[in-house]
Amino acid sequence: MTMLAGKRALVTGSTSGIGLAVARALARAGAKVMLNGSRTAGDAEPLRAALAAETGAEVAYTAANLAVPASARALVEAATAAFGGLDILVNNAGIQHVAAVDAFPDDTWDQLMAINVSAVFHTTKAALPGMKEQGWGRIVNIASAHGLVASPFKAPYTASKHAVVGFTKAVALEVAEQGITCNALCPGYVRTPLVEKQVVDQARVHNMAEERVIREVILAAQPTKQFVEADEVAAYVVFLCSDAARSVTGSAPLIDGGWTAR
Ligand code: NAD
Q1: Residue located nearest, by CA, to atom 9 of ligand 1
Q2: Does domain 8-188+229-253 have CATH number 3.20.20.140?
Q3: Residue 194 confidence (pLDDT)
Q4: Are 46 and 39 a contacting pair, CB within 8 Å?
Q5: Is 236 a catalytic residue?
Q6: Could you give phi then psi for residue 30, rounded to 5 degrees?
Q7: Which residues line the pocket of ligand 1, CB cutoff 6 A?
Q8: Which entry of 73, 142, 227, 233 is 20 to 30 Å from 254 by CA?
């Protein structure tokens, strides 16, 4: 596939889960891809090399802690320098913590907001000048069904994803005439390390066995009774990054197995 041949992409938090699937799909579509995570370049090298070999694409890696604004900006600068510009920014990195509001640790709220919301602002701010200059850009924020609806014990995460959806709409309006689109993809439950951790946390707060949590708490929300696959999210990202999606902007498309149709 060469739909994105020559495009230069950065995917934050792309050493696992949805981010890795998105990076792989963009590379398969012909884009050059900058991976990112918190592990060192040495530790990430086997993953980088495997993805480059598998896809035939140029794949690089930059470590950055997105909870730190300067690191988020430096990550965009590193991707721009490595590829000579940046066409696609996928803000994927995110964390979750499940707890009642009155038991939610203050520092976890700060960390969650820093990664899920503030980092999206800092990378977008850093990427936009180059995109405006070239008159083409694609920003895809991985929000969540929790960007549109809520669940108990997830107030900070729900707030963070609603913030991402709002930010996405405003950015889309600002750059609408400049060949740049900005969308917030809203997946339902995708079985990734983030959800595996949630199963454990939900089992604790609901005092239930983990298998029961999957059946009665997590997949109860999803009418298909199946997890969404990371590859399905990745395919949607590739579409949003294509020229065919040039009129899709400011949107928050759902891939949620019917969750929010109820
Ligand atoms: P994951 O835990 O597999 O991936 C999260 C990624 O973010 C990891 O690569 C991790 O290294 C990175 N990350 C976390 N903190 C970071 C930091 N400080 N600096 C740099 N990178 C950091 O989880 P996932 O499920 O693949 O989640 C990816 C995104 O999708 C998140 O924004 C999440 O909120 C969203 N999402 C997930 C689901 C789901 O069911 N899994 C559903 C909807 C939305």
Answers
A1: 13
A2: no
A3: 83
A4: no
A5: no
A6: 105, 0
A7: 13, 15-19, 37-38, 64-67, 92-95, 115, 142, 144, 187, 189-190, 192-195
A8: 73
Q: What are the tens digits of pLDDT across the range 69-82?
A: 999 999 999 999 99
> Taking the CB of residue 201, how many other CB atoms lie within 10 A of it?
16
What is d(CA 139, CA 239) in angstroms, rounded to the nearest whole number?
12
Task: Sheet with 137-142: list strands edge to edge.
Answer: 59-63, 32-37, 8-11, 88-91, 137-142, 180-187, 254-255
Mean pLDDT of 8-18: 98
**pTM for this one?**
0.96
Which residue(s) pair with 32 in the sheet? 8
The predicted pLDDT at position 221 comes to 85
What one-character DSSP code corresponds to residue 245?
A: G
Domain ranges of the chain: 8-188+229-253, 189-227
Please report which residue ranges of the chain form alpha helices under DSSP H.
Answer: 17-28, 41-55, 69-83, 106-113, 119-134, 155-174, 193-206, 210-212, 230-241
